[in-house]
Amino acid sequence: MAGESSEIHGLKQPIENSFVKDNIPKYEMDARGHAITEECPKLNNTRDRWNLIYIVFLVHGIGTLTPWNMFINAQNYFTTYKLAESYIGYSFPYLPIFMQLLTFCSQVPNVAFNWLNIFVQIRAELTTRIVYSIGTIFVSILLTVILAMIDTSSWPEVFFWITMICVVILNMANGIYQNTVFGMAAKLPAKYTGAIILGNNISGTLVSLVSMLTIYIFDDPRMAGIYYFIIALVVLCICFDTYFALPLNRFYRHHERESEKLKFHQKSPNENDSKIPYLKVMNQCKVQLCNVFCVFLVTLSIFPSIQGEVQPVDPNFFIKQPYFTQVTCFLTFNIFAMIGSLLANVVQWPKPEVLWIPVTMRFLYIPYYIFSNYQVQNQNRLLPVYFENEWIYWFISITMALSSGYLSSLAMMYTSLVVEPKYASTAGMMGGAFLITGIFGGILVSFIWPWAVTHIG
């Protein structure tokens, strides 16, 4: 009959009567706008076959940090090639503080738009956020690739400011992208949030390996920069494609439907759909948000600012520069942070109420690294060096990286679990915002250490 629907294999056909269709809750509709039944075996399938959805969020975790890793690892491309005196013919005024400016332009918009993405309700929801954010990042990096391929020696100031504008726009979009991905993962079991953190760490590992490979193969910073940028474009294309595969997966549709159903049934009669009690949600997960912030604050105040400038004391140590820094700093951190994220999917200890204890203890890493052989370029160190053994330094670096990956993954997982289920997505987005805020705070703190070791003593 017209205005009714018929069932085929547990799925109902499209409902012709618009009045009836408009009054069906969103969670009772499938990806094509068809009504579904509780008995539908396909959409109630709760197995992630072959871990496809886990892999998708892993890929998005790689994609959210690839642009940042790409720019910081392409430092030589900017400082020894595009803006070097040998290329442009004079001493570029912003060259000594290039990394500080790059960091500032990267993290300020990233922090701002992470938070904005939580409180500003975009009516087109997730698809609009993902499509436009990834598209904007892609265009910004593509412009950077084009700039790498052409001769900019006669207009270095224009090149510099175009690059910085690209970095600002890229990180505005990346703030929305990263935060939205955490919100999506929060609708699923906790391990999928862990997959994003694992992907973040894999991103750093991959870029570190590419950096070491380019150092070994050739000394051309221009080619190294181009390779970094092209790799980032490829990763973003993969992220773009995999996002649109999510609604086609039964497991993902099931959990998305359950999340919508929970919101619908737990909503009070007078509650507006678009009104989220942000203070209530933040109060419920405030301890875990603080844990997320503190883990990344400590990590980024050390890595790579201090750790990247620690020099070997023993001239006979088997790893010599420049590989000492590449191995004991970048490669060690990224590999063991990745292992820590993997461990968090297997072992969840300590429990949420006591996680703050190991998180707080990580602040002890800061004085250790300051009193190791940390040297500021072109300046004399006044603080004494108390920790000189390279093997102990390397072991401490491993524990710092392992604890960073493990504790950050646990804190992000717990953030969505300690709130009411209907607010899990909002809590996940808040966790992403505190994550990037912790990164920004750590970077700001890292600017203190060069002054401290060269003026105190």
Automatic annotation (TrEMBL):
Location relative to the cell: Membrane
InterPro entries the UniProt entry points to: Eqnu_transpt, MFS_trans_sf
SUPFAM superfamilies documented for this protein: MFS general substrate transporter (SSF103473)
One Pfam entry name: Nucleoside_tran
Protein name per its UniProtKB record: Equilibrative nucleoside transporter
Any GO CC annotation of this UniProt entry: plasma membrane
Molecular-function GO term, any one: nucleoside transmembrane transporter activity
Membrane-topology annotation of the record: Multi-pass membrane protein
Transmembrane portions of the chain: 52-72, 92-118, 130-152, 158-177, 198-218, 224-246, 285-303, 323-347, 354-371, 391-419, 431-452
Family according to the record: Belongs to the SLC29A/ENT transporter (TC 2.A.57) family.
Keywords: Membrane, Transmembrane, Transmembrane helix, Transport
